[in-house]
Each structure stands twice: as structure tokens, then as C-alpha cells.
């Protein structure tokens, strides 16, 4: 009897432990997300995998046409997996073939689709995957013209109906200077109220300078030939400006819904080209010559006019905004991509500078507005920085003549490539919670209304 009882207890314990193990495995499975990467033609596709995430299955699925673009993506993943410091352990399962899109849609190997590549068909891909029931995590821009904007609206409506998350990657929200500028703008004792401004003196001004030749993950970036074709990549006014328009909304009207039908007025827009020589094109793409689809665009000097530059003036809730993007071929020695952002308040102006004077490192300054007592502003700033220091220890205030420099320790300057991990963590959090803030989707729609409307105006 005692032996029988002991045996029954042991069997019970084994069954209990087994049931717990099964429960844990099931719980882990239920909360995991499997990534599908489709046609990764832009290096941003790899940058979201520069780190691991507890929610994301290390086994991923890649669908792409055969060629150098998917090779470059996989080389980056291999580099992340084999680096000495904090290596990743991604296990990509790769399908190569011209029918990659049909395969990705039909095999249903994952839950979340990553799109970063040729923008000509990106909006169609977004709509196809949302229609098929996938969450879509997209590099910017989600659309590059008015027809794409209309299709994107349909995709957002379908995503809402199916309870899916459609989201774009806005890395600038995770730049520490942008975070602190936004925070200071919400402190009335420091900033006052956002001014209305005028077309001649907008209250929000954002400018960025980018470069065709650059280094990524320590290596010279090789861009695909189509990157220089604005019918495939999109013009600058609908590409990088998505970050700037997003910043104008995120900083100027934090956590507020902005309806493009009632809260936006388009004022003016213009575009201009960067001239690319054959030698420059060869250096960036490693191609021997311009492809046929670009040869027809060459000027009489044999250079390619690439319409990568643009400026947009518009209003958000009657506040005047200007955004401008410029693409140069290569940064000056010691330089890099740069960012400028000015916010004009009734008590102070908040400005981010990143020029030679700042050693091309973004720095945040506070300047008193006309009529503001500098001593009173300094007192308010000291209190504000003390409050910020509770979240970001080491942030301090340094007076420089008629302005204050916000000193930010290097530990908070994680770099542009690391920002992709921050956005991905945020997106995976949305998937876990089953919802996004109510302003995210309408403000994405407004952002792409502004960029695609500006393109039409500029042309």
C-alpha cells in the first residue's frame, strides 16, 4: 500500500510539473511575435535587428527577390550575430524568388511584417499585408504620392477594422535633444505658449541635412541604384521630411489628435535637385554606369539631377511651420547628418543646433524671447532642469552670454542606429497592449497628407 501510494504521489508530481511546463511554454508562445522581413532593400530593415527583444522570436522569415539587396541585409544580420560585444542570435529562414510576395502572403510564417526598401510599391505591399491580416511595421515613407496617400488611408481603415497595428519608424522621437526640447516646451514657466508666428517667421522650424555617401555599422553604405530614381525612392519632400513633419506635430502638439481636414493649411512648397556625377554614383552604388531608367534623366553635363531637396510651409492649428530637407553628396571631414529645430515660445526659444561650432553633435539651447527677464527665466530653467535631472541624472544648465546650453551626458546620446531599437521596443509594446495612443494613427495620416500635398504644390 505504501509503495502504491508513493508511486501515485510521484506520478501526480510528474503530471503537475509537466502541466506547468506546458503552461509556461504555451504562455511564452502566446506572447511571442514572429518577424517576416519582405524585400529588404534599405539598410533600415537590418537596423531593427541590431539587438534582441524578449517578445520577438529569434527565428525570422525573409522573402525577397534574389540579388545584392537581400545579400546586404543578411550580411548585416550575420555581422550582428558574430560581433564580439553583445552578439545577437537571429536565425533567418530565407526564401528567394520572383514570387516572394505571394509566398510571404500565403505561407503565414509570422505575425509582423517589416517593410524597408523600394518605395514605389511599398504602399501596395502595406495594403496587401493588412488585407491578409498581418501587423505591418514600415520604414518611412509609407507613401510617396497622392495616389499612395489615398491607398494608405484605406490600409489604416482596414487595420482598424481588423484590430491590426500599422506603424512607421520615427527614430527622431528617441533623440535625447528632441526629448528634452519637447519636455521643456510643455513647461509654461520656461517656454510660455507656442507662438502663432508668420510665413516669414514660423514658430516651428525644422531642417535636416543628409548625405548620399555615409558609413553604417562601421562600413561604407552601398545604396541600390534605384535609390537615385525619385519615382522609386520618392522625392526628398516626401521622404526624409516625414521625420520633420512628425516632429512638428509631436513637439508642437504633444499627444493631440491633428485632423488634416480641419487643422492643416498648406501654404507653399518647393523642390530642387542635387547633381550626382557618374563617379559619385559609382562610389555609392558600386555600379559601373547609370542604369537606363536614369540615363534619360541626365543633364547636358552627364550629371543626374536628383530631386532630394524640399521645403514646405504650412500651419498646424494656425501655428506656422517650416520644414526643409537637404541632401549633399558627402559630409565635411568630421561631419555627419545634421538636424536643426527651433520652437518659438512667448517666454523663450528652444533651439537644437548641430553645426561645426557644436562639432557636429546636436546640442540644445534656451534663449529668452523678447520682453523676457533673463534672470527670471534662469530661475525657472534651474527648477526645470532639476526636475528633468530626476529622470536623466547629470543633465545640467550652463549659461553662455545671452543663452543657456543644456548639458547632456554622452550616456544619453545612444546614436541614430540605436534609435531603431527604441522604436521597435515601443512598437512591440503596442502589440502586447493591443493598442496604440489614440493620436498616433490620425497623426500619421495627417503627416502623409502634408508631404504628398507638398509634392503636388512643388511640382
In short:
This protein has 15 helices and 17 strands. It has 459 residues and is an alpha/beta fold.
Give the helix/strand layout.
Layout (H helix, E strand, L loop, with lengths): L1 H30 L3 E4 L5 H4 L11 E6 L3 H15 L8 E6 L3 H8 L4 E4 L6 H10 L3 E4 L7 H17 L3 E3 L7 H10 L2 H4 L12 E10 L1 E2 L2 E2 L9 H4 L7 H12 L11 E13 L1 H8 L6 H4 L8 E13 L2 E12 L7 E7 L3 E6 L9 E6 L5 H16 L6 E5 L2 E5 L8 H18 L6 H19 L1
Parallel strand pairs: 1-2, 1-4, 2-3, 4-5, 5-6, 7-12
Antiparallel strand pairs: 7-13, 8-9, 10-11, 11-12, 13-14, 14-15, 15-17, 16-17
What's the total helix number?
15
Strand content: 15-25%
Shape: globular
Structural class by SSE content? alpha/beta
Profile the largest sheet. 9 strands, mixed
Helix content: 25-40%
Number of strands: 17
Mean pLDDT: 92
* Count of individual domains: 3
CATH architecture annotation of the largest domain: 2-Layer Sandwich
The CATH topology of the largest domain comes to: Dihydrodipicolinate Reductase, domain 2
Question: What this model shows, in words?
Answer:
- With about 450 residues, this protein is an alpha/beta fold.
- The chain folds into 3 domains: about 1-30; about 30-170, 3-Layer(aba) Sandwich (Rossmann fold), CATH 3.40.50; about 170-459, 2-Layer Sandwich (Dihydrodipicolinate Reductase, domain 2), CATH 3.30.360.
- Helices cover about 40% and strands about 25% of the residues.
- It has 15 helices and 17 strands.
- The strands form 3 sheets. A 9-stranded mixed β-sheet has the order 10-11-12-7-13-14-15-17-16. A 6-stranded parallel β-sheet has the order 3-2-1-4-5-6.
- Strand 13 (about 340-345) and strand 14 (about 350-355) form a beta hairpin.
- Helix 6 (about 145-160) runs antiparallel to helix 15, helix 7 packs parallel to helix 10 and helix 10 (about 240-250) crosses helix 15 (about 440-459).
- It is globular, with a radius of gyration of 25 Å.
- The chain starts with a helix and ends with a helix.
Amino acid at each position: 500500500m505504501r509503495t502504491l501510494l508513493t508511486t501515485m504521489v510521484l506520478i501526480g508530481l510528474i503530471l503537475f510539473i509537466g502541466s506547468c511546463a506546458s503552461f509556461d511554454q504555451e504562455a511564452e508562445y502566446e506572447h511571442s511575435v514572429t518577424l517576416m522581413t519582405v524585400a529588404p532593400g534599405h539598410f533600415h530593415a537590418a537596423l531593427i535587428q541590431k539587438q534582441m527583444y524578449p517578445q520577438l522570436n529569434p527565428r525570422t522569415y525573409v522573402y525577397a527577390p534574389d540579388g545584392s539587396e537581400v545579400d546586404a541585409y543578411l550580411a548585416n544580420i550575420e555581422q550582428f550575430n558574430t560581433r564580439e560585444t553583445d552578439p545577437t542570435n537571429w536565425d533567418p529562414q530565407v526564401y528567394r524568388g520572383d514570387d516572394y510576395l505571394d509566398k510571404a502572403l500565403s505561407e503565414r510564417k509570422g505575425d509582423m511584417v517589416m517593410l524597408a526598401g523600394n518605395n514605389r510599391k511599398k504602399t501596395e505591399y502595406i495594403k496587401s499585408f493588412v488585407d491578409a491580416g498581418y501587423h505591418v511595421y514600415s520604414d518611412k515613407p509609407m507613401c510617396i504620392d497622392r495616389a499612395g496617400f489615398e491607398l494608405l488611408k484605406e490600409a489604416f481603415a482596414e487595420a482598424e477594422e481588423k484590430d491590426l497595428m500599422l506603424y512607421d519608424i520615427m527614430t527622431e522621437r528617441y533623440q535625447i535633444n528632441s526629448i528634452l526640447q519637447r519636455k521643456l516646451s510643455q513647461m509654461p514657466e520656461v517656454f510660455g505658449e507656442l507662438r502663432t508666428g508668420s510665413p516669414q517667421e514660423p514658430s516651428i522650424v525644422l531642417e535636416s541635412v543628409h548625405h548620399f555617401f555615409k558609413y553604417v555599422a562601421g562600413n561604407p553604405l552601398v545604396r541600390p541604384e534605384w535609390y537615385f530614381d525619385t519615382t522609386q525612392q520618392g522625392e526628398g519632400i516626401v521622404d526624409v521630411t516625414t521625420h520633420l513633419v512628425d516632429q512638428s506635430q509631436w513637439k508642437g502638439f504633444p499627444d493631440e489628435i491633428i485632423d488634416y481636414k480641419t487643422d492643416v493649411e498648406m501654404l507653399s512648397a518647393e523642390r530642387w535637385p542635387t547633381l550626382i556625377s557618374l563617379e559619385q554614383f559609382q562610389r555609392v552604388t558600386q555600379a559601373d554606369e547609370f542604369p537606363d531608367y536614369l540615363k534619360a534623366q541626365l543633364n547636358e553635363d552627364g550629371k543626374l539631377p536628383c530631386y532630394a531637396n524640399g521645403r514646405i510651409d504650412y500651419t498646424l492649428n494656425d501655428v506656422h511651420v517650416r520644414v526643409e530637407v537637404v541632401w549633399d553628396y558627402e559630409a565635411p571631414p568630421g561631419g555627419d547628418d545634421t538636424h536643426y529645430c527651433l520652437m518659438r515660445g512667448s517666454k523663450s526659444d528652444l533651439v537644437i543646433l548641430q553645426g561645426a561650432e557644436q562639432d557636429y553633435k546636436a546640442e540644445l539651447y534656451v534663449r529668452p524671447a523678447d520682453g523676457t527677464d533673463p534672470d527670471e527665466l534662469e530661475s525657472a530653467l534651474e527648477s526645470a532642469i532639476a526636475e528633468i535631472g530626476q529622470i536623466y541624472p547629470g543633465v545640467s544648465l550652463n549659461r553662455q552670454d545671452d543663452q543657456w546650453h543644456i548639458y547632456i551626458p554622452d550616456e544619453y546620446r545612444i546614436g541614430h542606429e540605436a534609435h531603431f531599437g527604441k522604436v521597435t521596443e515601443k512598437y512591440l509594446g503596442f502589440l502586447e497592449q493591443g493598442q496604440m495612443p489614440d493620436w498616433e494613427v490620425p497623426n500619421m495620416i495627417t503627416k502623409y497628407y502634408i508631404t504628398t500635398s507638398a509634392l503636388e504644390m512643388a511640382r
